[in-house]
Every structure is written in structure tokens, then in C-alpha cells.
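Follow-up to my post from last week.
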Amino acid sequence: MSLATRPRRTALPPEEPSIPQRSGGTGGYWLYLLPGFALLLIIVIVPLVWNLLLTFTKWKGVRTPEFIGLGNWQKILTDSDFWTSFTNSVWMILAMVVVPTIVGLIVAALLFDVVGRKFGGKVGAFLRATYYLPQILPIAVAGIVIGWIVRPGGDGALNQILGAFGIPAYDWLGQMPSALIVLMLVMVWVQLGYPVVVFMAALQRVDPELYEAAELDGANWLQRFTAITMSIIRPEIFVVTLTCTIAALKVFGPVYIITRGGPAGATLVPAYYAYQEFFTKRNVGYGATIATVLTIVVVIVSIIFIRVQNSLERKERAGL
Amino acid sequence: MHATTAIVTGKPVKARPRGGMTKKRPVDWLLLALVVVGALLVIAPFYLVLVNSFKSPVDYATSGPLAFPETLDFGGIIKFWERVNFPEKVWNSIFISGIVAVLAVVISMLNAFAIGIGRVRGRSWIVLLFLLANLLPQEALLYPLYYMFKSVGLYDNVWAVIIVFTVIQAAFGTYLLSSVYGTFPKEILEAASLDGASRWQILWRVIFPISRPTLSVLLIFFFIWTWNEFLIPLTFLASNANQTVPVAISVLQGDRLMDVTTTSASALLGIIPTLIFFLIFQRTLTRGITAGAVK
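User reply:
Got it. Predicted complex:
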């Protein structure tokens, strides 16, 4: 097991190449970037710009796209399905970021502090692996597992279990709000292991002597946790919330498999909405517009996170 | 999940004092019970899938989803195995993920060599560009790529998926390896250069062997991430014979003919390959993810 290193602020030191130069400058190194850059251009940059251009067109995917100016952008502002999809993104952030981070923090602290110390590291490692297991499942398969459990009618596993207690069968995915709640529970289940593993690794960075000193000073567990642990693992909390927020905004697989956006669009998310416009309704221009908005949101969220983290770190360093 | 993890190699951990192991208060047992109950909830769906995959539909109807199967019934598994031609799907997934992992590691290395060792101008922007390529939602590339692949005859071809994921994974690899190579010991490079090694030789004979541990972590992550991908294989691999494991299983879900135990068996077969990776690479995985994600 290795330990997290604190992020270095400057990406790379501003010096000359590490290998002494016999002739010329650093120009020769561009050759090494060529294959990667050419591929990036063809597979990412060109399609991205193309997608942006498509937002100004009406196109069925065949014949020539028809230029309609800002028509798609006007439509998106008053499209209630679009707003539903972004509202559902907020629910996904609750299920994929807020709940897993808080619960993950508690579980990691318990596993590290209580289980690991009092019952041995092996027990802690085993439980950590258990919490992590859903993370390695293909998200599509995770969706199938849950979709099978909440199957409507009497033969669904959940309905059968509840039936044993005399609760009548219920169509969990057929109505709101249970469809959205099922989706959210699946995401909590899938996501929880990631913060647990990351936070447990971060906790190893905490110097045990700090704890012992605090203990001698009469600090209780909660006080030690908030004063020492939380401040030391803050970089990890940032990374977990950033990466999970991006994942929550982009979520597609579970929605496609479990609810297909239903009932009646109630569990629609932007990624699935764009997919539907592309391939089911054949409104390519409008699908491209939704995908573009999603991209902009992802980029803005990333920038905000990174800025906040940088300024916090600067403050922290200034305070030291 | 994809891109939610980062890989770093770290330093060894200071051992904790072992003194506290013996003093177990009742509250410690209570807290242990709490985390164990949580863990049981997490694996409950796996338990349900496992026991019900081996039941006959009749057994399921009478004994319910929680009980052990009365007799081991492989009917559901066989039915699903044959319907999707499971070995073919596993091979597709291994082929796609394996080639992507190798190609993406090679490209990450070449890029990181220019950025981290060569320190080309504007490298921070180049790194940022690659990082963005990894962060952005795939939907924003989906239709143009779909159209492009259709026009060059690569639609419904595993190579379309291989190319796309090579680029996306290499974007992350470039971001990570650039900072690893940025701190590569300068003395070694200078010594190699004095001995008359060219850049190409330094890359393959010095940097590659020394950074092999980091590269192998990247390789494993690229493999698993690609294996787990859904949207792009779903869109680009239309015909049955080209599909990956997750796509093939999901396509069958709409099939109303599948009885409840066959559905369970399909989930089980989807879980098994990942479970095998998990058991083989557990240490690498935890080392990789734990590693503090930030670089």
C-alpha cells in the first residue's frame, strides 16, 4: 500500500530539457508528440468543433444540414424536458457526490481508526475491498443487477421479499418518485467504495503522534477527527468531489439500462437526452446542443473546483 | 469509474504502533457491527444474483429470491450463455481492452517524454488540452464520430472503438505520466547522454525500464476502464458478433422472453470477468486509486 503524495502546484519546473542538448533546441521533441496529437485532433478536437457547429443546424443525419442560426439554443431555454434533465443531474450529484462522500468519510474513519486499530489491518482491508466491489462492475452490469432486483410484478426479487411481509407488489420503476429513488440508490451503491478507498489511503498520512498528543490533551474522537483528520485529507475530499461531480453530470449507463429516462421522461439526464435526440428522434442538431451545454457545464465545474482548491491551498500555506 | 481515479506511485507508510490492538471497548464492537452491516448491504445484490442464477424458475417461484437453490440448476446460465454466445463477447472485450491498453500506454509515453523530459514550449497548455479531452462528456463527440466512422467504413467495427478509447485513455495517461517524467532523475539521463545514447534510445532503454511499475498500473487501469465502457461500444458496435460483454448483456434486457433466473444468470456472467480482474489486480488497483488521485 502506498501513500498519497500532496499535489505539486507547479505542473513542471520551467527549465531546459532534462537531457543535455548536443544540437538544436527542444524542437526534436515535437516529433514524439506527433502521433498522440494527430489522434487527439481527429478523434477529439475535430468532432468537438463539428458538434458545436451542428448546434446551429437542423439535421436528420442524412442529406445536408440546414442552417437555422440560434434556433436550437432558443428551443433549449424553454424546453421543459431539458430542465428536468438538469434538475435530475442535481439529484445525481446528491446520490453520487454528497451521500458517498459523507458516508465514505464515516466508513473510512471507522475502518481505519476503530476496525484497523482494534481488530487488525486484515479485517479493515477485507471490509474496504467489500465496499469497493461495486466500483469495478461495468456500470451497465450494475444497472442490470438492480434492474433485475426491482423488476415489476410478483417475480421481482424486491417484490418477493416484501411480499413475505405482506406488502403488495409495486412497480418501482413505473412511477415517480420511486423510479428516481431507485436510480439514486443504485448510484450510491456503485459510488460508495471510491471515497472509502481514497480516504483510507489519505488517513495513513496522518501522523499517529498527532492523535496521541490530542488524546493526552483530552480531545475526544470527534474533536480529533474534525481538527486533525479533516484538515489533512482535504485534498482527497476535493478530488473525490470533483471527479464524482463530473461523473454525476455525465451519467448515462444506469439511466439507459434501468429506466430509459422514464416514466414519461421523469428520470431523464442530459447525457441520455442527447443520446435520444441523436439516435431515436433523429434531431441531431438539438442533440448536439444538449451535449454542448453538458460539456460547458462540466468544464465550468472543473475550473471552479480547481480554482477554489488552489486558493484554499494558498491560504493554508500563507497561514503556516 | 472511468476518470475518477488517478494513479501515482507513492512512498511506504510509517507503521502504526500496535499497542491499541488489545483494548476493545463495547463501543468498538458496536462500531464494528455497524461497518459490517454496511458491507453486508453492499454485497447483498451480489448474493441475490449468485443464488438465483442457479435456481430453476419453478424453484425461484416457490422458495423466493433469498433461499439457497434446492438443487443446482444451470438452465438459466446455459440459456444465456448460448443466446449471447458468451465466449465470443468475452473475447471481443479482451481484444478491444487489451489493444487499447497497450496502444494508450505507448502514446502516453511518447507524449509524456516530449512534455516531461523534453519540456517542449507551451507544455502546460498541452497537458491541459489532453486533460480536457479526458473530462468532456463523450456525447459531445458522439455524432460526429458516428458519422465519420460510417463514411470511412469503420462503423460496426471493433477498431472504431479501439481508436476512440486509445485516444481517450492516452489523454489521461499523458496528463499523469507527464508529471511523473517531470521529476525523472536528471543524473541518469545525463549519464546516458554522455555515453552517446540518442533520445530514442534513452526513452526505450532508460526511461521505459525505470518507469515500468507506473506503466503497468496505467496498463491495468486502461484495460479495466475500457472493459467497463458502455456508451461508445453501444453506439458503434451494432451487430451482435462485435459487441462487448456489457453491451451484449444490456441488449438482451429488453427481451421479455427472458425469465427471472436467466436475467440473474446474465448479471452473474457479467460480474465474473470483472471479479477475476479484481482478485488478480486487487493490490495494484488499491495502490492506484488510493494514490491520492491528485497530481
